[in-house]
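To: structure desk
From: M.T.
Subject: fold request, one chain
Message: Could you run this one when you get a chance? Sequence is below, nothing fancy, just the single chain.
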Amino acid sequence: MGQTEEAIAYLEKTLEIEPYDAVSHSNLAFALGELKRFDEAMEHYAKASEIDEDYSKNHLRWAKTLLKMERKDQALEHIEQAFDIHRRLAAKLVKQDRTLIEAIEHYQKALKINDQFAQLHRDLAQALIRQGKYELAIDHFTKAISLAPEWPLPVDDLAWLLATHNNPKFRNGPKALRLAEKVCELTNYEHSSALITLAASYAETGQFAKAVATAEKSLKLMEQAGRQEKVNQIQQWLVLFKQNLPLHRDPRKPWEN
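Reply: Done. Structure tokens follow.
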């Protein structure tokens, strides 16, 4: 008996004792697939997924077996399911600081499956900011921008970080200004958050008259939207710009704090 047959025998005995062990079902399915016992393999993959719908590794193994069966389209579906599992779990966990590390791990696992998804790079960058890992956050914002250059959100995120970070190591006024101008162009100079990013970028580059004028336009739009907490915040920042002072803050704090 070869090693694969021995593994199958062992896993079958394990499942007799613990029939609801998703890992054992998945391991058995993969081993059966190696021996081209595909029908049996499909049954155990399906059982593993039924027991643990968040078991992403099962879907990746399932995909490998399907590729052996020359079922490429079905394999891709399972790869996408694995990706979606990590993304969904990360999005759920990132809201809780105590599970932020685990959330980041899920984002990173998802990116190993598909690193061409701009939204995921932005989500990971935002989580990394909350963890204080700013260089990595900048890398992922940059990747998101390269993948979706016409999507304003990661451009605005990066411009804001580079213009307002309280550590000069991470500030880059000229680059922030270029990015902020791009965001405003993409949003037709009609988005309050983009305009306040532009105002902060003007202030960081010493263009305080433009910072004041742009912040006032942002303030007006925010007042029209009825976002009082952000109106109050912009008013505070406007005071800084009128005093010829740039805006520097802890990026881990919420926008309105």
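Reply (cont.): The mean pLDDT is 91. Let me know if you need anything else for the meeting.
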